[in-house]
Amino acid sequence: MKNEEMLAVLKALSNETRLNILLWLSDPDLMNKELPNTIKVEFPGGVCVASIQEKAGLAQSVISTYLSSMQKIGLLESRRYGQWTYYRRNEQAIEHFLADFAAGMQARKI
C-alpha cells in the first residue's frame, strides 16, 4: 500500500464517527437487531444507511458523505437495493492496511 493510501485511511479513521461506523459494522447482526427498520437483503454483513444514521445521530447527508469517503478508500463496500443503500466492511482491504501499517512501523522502528 502506498503512503498516500495509508494516509487516506488514517485520516478517515481520525474522525470519531467514521471510526465508530467501522467498529459498528464489525457486528452487522447486532446493528440490524438494534435497528430492525430495514429490509433483509442478499448482501451478507450489510447495514442500511438509515440504520447507521440513526445510531450515529447525525444528519443523513453527513453519514452518506462519511460512508462514501470510506468506500472510496476501500474500507467499505456498498450495494444498492431500490432506494436503500447497504454498507459493509471490506475485511480484505482492512486486513491489508493493518498488515502494511504494522510492517511499515516495524521497518521504521516506530
TrEMBL record:
It comes from Paenibacillus silvestris. GO terms for molecular function: DNA binding; DNA-binding transcription factor activity. The keyword Cytoplasm does not apply. PANTHER family: TRANSCRIPTIONAL REGULATOR, ARSR FAMILY, TRANSCRIPTIONAL REPRESSOR SDPR. It comes from the Bacteria. The keyword Cytoplasm does not apply. Residues 1-109 form the HTH arsR-type domain. This is Transcriptional regulator. Keywords: DNA-binding, Transcription, Transcription regulation.
